[in-house]
Specification:
Elements lengths: L5 H15 L2 H17 L16 E4 L4 E3 H4 L5 E5 L8 H11 L1 H6 L3 E6 L3 H11 L4 E4 L4 H5 L3 E2 L3 H9 L4 H5 L6 E2 L2 E5 L5 E6 L9 H16 L1
């Protein structure tokens, strides 16, 4: 039997919340996701054909990652996620490890998952799932901002978090509410974006198949 798609796995997460969460808390979550979809600045999102300027990220094991280094042997695939404790991220990244990472390795592409969370806290998700790809900090959401994919929770979500004694800036170590929307960006060896999918609703994320197709196309274009 085929493995469940990422869409199904995230739908299962939502269904579990419908069964178990307080209705008011659930509605705050649903309203926040819907509001992000309705108000996102889609024109600002990274797009196919954009040129990517050099950047540096910090791998949780301590090594700096540069665009030049990521593109040395083939295309780079960047996956933006929120933080190590994010429930949806703990579904998405293992899915990518299973359904995406092996195919990318065979194509000579490099996969990196990026979050603004500080490295010493971010490394937990890599260890927990035994991820076979780089996990790195995007300091102060620098690259996420450049790609136009940063958001802040709405007032109701912030109030709900405060009521539970939570402040996302403490969780991430950034001191701010800013988080990246889930996004996947494929960059070819010329530094050009070949695929970009941004999901304002964090329970909607890119499947492996279209990402692999984009990497194959980018690899063939360079070979030609």
């Amino acid at each position: 039997m085929a493995a469940a798609t990422l869409r199904q796995r995230l739908a299962d997460l939502h269904a579990e919340r419908v069964r178990t969460w307080d209705p008011a808390v659930l509605q705050t979550n649903i309203d926040q996701r819907r509001r992000l979809v309705d108000t996102a600045n889609y024109d600002a999102f990274v797009k196919v054909g954009d040129r990517v300027a050099p950047f540096v990220a910090e791998e949780v094991d301590g090594d700096p990652l540069t665009l030049e280094g990521l593109l040395r042997n083939g295309p780079a695939v960047l996956v933006f996620f929120r933080f190590a404790g994010c429930p949806a991220c703990n579904i998405a990244l293992p899915y990518y490890n299973e359904a995406l990472a092996p195919g990318l390795k065979a194509l000579g592409a490099t996969l990196v998952a990026l979050s603004p969370q500080v490295p010493e806290r971010l490394k937990d998700i890599k260890i927990r799932h035994g991820l076979d790809f780089a996990v790195a900090t995007d300091p102060n959401n620098t690259l996420a901002k450049r790609f136009g994919v940063v958001f802040e929770p709405d007032g109701a979500s912030k109030a709900a978090a405060r009521a539970k004694g939570n402040f996302i800036g403490d969780v991430t170590g950034t001191g701010t509410w800013e988080l990246p929307m889930p996004a996947v960006v494929v960059i070819d060896q010329s530094g050009t974006v070949r695929f970009a999918e941004v999901s304002p609703d964090w329970l909607v994320r890119a499947e492996a198949g279209p990402i692999l197709d984009a990497v194959r196309t980018a690899s063939l274009a360079v070979a030609a």
